[in-house]
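User: two proteins, same treatment. go.

Assistant:
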Amino acid sequence: MPWSNQNGGGGPWGGGGNNQGPWGQGPNRPRGGGGKGGPPDLEDIIRRGQDQLRNIVPGGFNGGVVALVGMILVVFWLFQCIYIVQPDERGVELRFGNPKEEISAPGLHFHLWPMETVEIVKVTMQQQNIGAASTSSSSSSGLMLSGDQNILNVQFSVFFTVSDPKAYLFNVENPAETLQQVAESAMREVVGRRPAQDAFRDNRQPIETEVANIVQGTMDRYRAGISIGAVTIQDVAPPREVADAFEEVQRADQDKQRLVEEANQYANQKLGQARGDAAQIREAAAAYKNRVVKEAEGEAQRFASIHEQYAKAPDVTRTRLFLETMEQVLKNSKKVVIDEKQGVVPYLPLNEIGKQAQQGG
């Protein structure tokens, strides 16, 4: 007991013996005594736990600790030896730092740790954002000089997959950073050969295709194990310092384009109207030509028929022509009938009376 005197004397401060306390009193027991009705003693609980542990652990308590530690180490080793590869991943096992030939497919795998380790690589489509809005390492990232000496802030993304996990892990020290630098360099090269207007809205697709081809060729030369899926330009804007002036130039260019379109529209309208008028005049001229030609042909045919009849009966034809001519000359003139014997004969203008009657009615 902690307060008992092993030599039969008092406590450490001279207390009485016989299991007395340090001030001459007996040890304080839990209320209810140590009988069946009271709670168990703490020392009894500890003692019983030690006995049970000796029975469970082979070799006793001292040897059981070693066995327990050994079991824990074995479980830890097994936990380190087993790894899982997800469906969108591939694993590359290393033996003493050298990669094995086979690639671990998705599923549960086992390797001898620590002699062997594993590197997990994601092989599905990944996106690398490049530009001032997506990278905080450099404030000038994305700033490029176009072919017409304009400064542009180009933000774009590179979509890629890992085609060779082993090459991706061991041929390039930092594949993600290398890809970013190569893509940024390729975009600067392509934008530097073109005017700023191409990057803004006119020819983005050719720029994206050319940059993707350059990046793929460079990564293939590095044997980085990366396959470029696409390059997309997210946004193109001038730097904040010159944004107002650049927008003013853009507005002027838009006004120019608008005025040119309006002029072209007006020219097309006038040209269409002139072409319509010209076509109408040509049709009228053709109709007049046909009418005059037909009239001339009709007069010629009538003259030919008259000449034919005149050749057959000259007197009759001459008289008929005289009468027809006089009819044409005198039909609109005032008429006075003179008889050789009676002189002037009264003439009743029936035609004029009929016209007056119609007008009066």
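Protein 2:
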Amino acid sequence: MFGVVFPNRSFPMDLSCFTQIDSFHWILDMNTFVGEAYDQIKEMCIFLLNEFSLPPDKVLAVYVQSPGSEFKYCGAVYRACPSAVLTLCWPEPGGQMQLTSDSVPLTAKIGVSIEDLNAIPALNVGHQQRIEQLAMKVGENLFNFMQSFCTMDSNKLVVPTDILDRWFKKFQERAKRDPEYLKSFVI
């Protein structure tokens, strides 16, 4: 029905790598796959194996779960969008006791579920979150730059009129000199 690959980390994996919970739910135990560094896995490509894998009104939704946390929605694939690279935004580990009743450590998991197309809020949430995080970091960089040139006047910040031009020029020059600089803004 579907396959997954973790870019730069795995070969393509099929449904047999997942534990089937019922007819509509599968789980991949990340300890089995990567061990303790599950949160270093930032992306996952999921794909349908053929156009008949799902009915037209269904999606294959992907969720992630850190140890002791709730599942968090990441995105989905469906017939009109048969593959996607999803950002895995792992939730903070929960405060629950880190052992189950059988004294087995809780693990991180990736869940895959067949759901109704109209029940899914946004098909690629992780991509949207990554864009928002990038915008926040660039805004923070601008604010810090402006603060170094501003003065206070009656509870207002006063900055030179050319501050945006100066910041943008400095930003562009740094990005040209250091290709890794822009990558530092991506979480």
